[in-house]
Amino acid sequence: MSKIELNAISKSFGAVEALAATTLTIASGQFTVLLGPSGCGKSTTLRLLAGLDLPTSGQIFIDGRDVTAASPAQRGIAMVFQNYALFPHLTVADNILFGLQVRGTPAAECKTRLADTAELLGLTALLARKPSQLSGGQQQRVALGRALVSQAKICLMDEPLSNLDAKLRQEMRSELRSLQQKLKLTLVYVTHDQSEAMSMGDQVVLLEGGRVVQSADPRTLYAHPATTFAARFIGTPPMNLLRTRDGCIAGTAIPAAQFAGTQILGIRPEDVQLDSAGIPALVDSLEYLGADQVVRCRVGEETVSIRLAGGAQVAVGARIGLKFPASAIRIFDPESLRAVA
Ligand code: ATP
Hints:
Layout: E1 4-13, E2 16-26, E3 31-35, H1 42-50, E4 57-62, E5 65-66, H2 72-75, E6 77-80, H3 92-102, H4 107-121, H5 136-148, E7 154-158, H6 166-183, E8 186-191, H7 194-200, E9 203-208, E10 211-216, H8 218-223, H9 228-233, E11 240-245, E12 248-249, E13 263-267, E14 273-288, E15 292-299, E16 302-309, E17 319-323, E18 330-332
Bound molecules: adenosine-5'-triphosphate.
């Protein structure tokens, strides 16, 4: 078991509040992603978990033990950073073993762990090479190996795939996910890439301005965003948000479904349907993606994105009708920007 709890954790750097009274539970053996835009407090949270920084207030518990003031070494946590931080003059084997050797682990133990880790990561044939003789993906695996060889049950990763090209990143995502499941690691992973978060995480913690906006599994986050920020941050294209005034979509006399008053109405692009008798819309632009296409159209003062099958025949400038199925509509309060139950 390696459950992590943050209890009202705050962190300020002078006048900058990087993290504001954050309370969060990270389940044991789960893949938890800290997601959010630049500066939202992801790395700060990770550094506090690792013990590289101390919180301004609040406590951190690992398996019920208060580790708030514990040193990194006392926490039993492994870390992988964005820039790998491999030693260029050491071989792959020595890079992987560096931490164990510093801690004086017996040679026989080092040998067994190295063999196991290299086998797990497909690095056995590369152990004698130097980092400069490896591809980006292989270097990433060495950095991973260095964390895994410590056999820590908690592993923290800060944007570990961001230096890789798109195809390799895709491959490493599923490798990392299966490795985490195989080893039952408690993995805390920082990224600003929502598709990375959604494809790997059991739990996604969405942060904005040093606060947790929502912490949920990817499906819940996608289907029931807690705020308009969550609705727009998750999904490409993001959820459509339409302002309604006096029960109509802004700038039209079109009743906004069954909802009266002034609200923000949210609907995912793939949930919008074509219906010639529906809400009148003018096609502004088309983005053809092969299997599907994203059609952007004007409805009153608003722009609505629709995801249609690649084969659907739609032309720029066409007048079409849209239907918003009631079950797909989410409502947000225009003041608080929070979802209305
Ligand atoms: P990114 O994705 O760009 O790395 P992040 O979400 O990881 O962003 P943090 O690095 O946690 O963001 O930073 C959160 C806030 O705290 C930012 O406003 C940042 O400028 C500030 N901050 C972080 N570290 C320090 C520091 N050592 N001194 C002063 N301000 C800091």
